[in-house]
Amino acid sequence: xxxxxxxxxxxxxxxxxxxxxxxxxxxxxxxxxxxxxxxxxxxxxxxxxxxxxxxxxxxxxxxxxxxxxxxxxxxxxxxxxxxxxxxxxxxxxxxxxx
Length: 98
Prior knowledge:
By secondary structure, the protein is α+β, with helices and mostly antiparallel strands. It has one domain: YefM-like fold, CATH 3.40.1620.
C-alpha cells in the first residue's frame, strides 16, 4: 500500500467518540456491517477500531461451520467410532439400578 492509498483510506474512515458509540451503537454497527471501518476516539486519541467481520482480512462468514460429519467419516470410515451409543449405555445403567 502506498502512502497515497493510506491517506485515502484514513480520510474515508469514520471516527466516533466513545460517547457517540455508547449512545448510538446500533448506528455505528450498521455502518460497520456495510463494510466501513470505524475508529473509536477518547479525547481525540484513537483507542480502538471496529472492522467488518467478513472481508479482506479473512473473517469467517456467518453460518460457515466445519462439517463434523465428514470429518468423523474420514477418521472412522462409514461405521463410525467403535463402541456403543450413549443412549444404549444409559438404558443399560438404568436397568441395572432397578
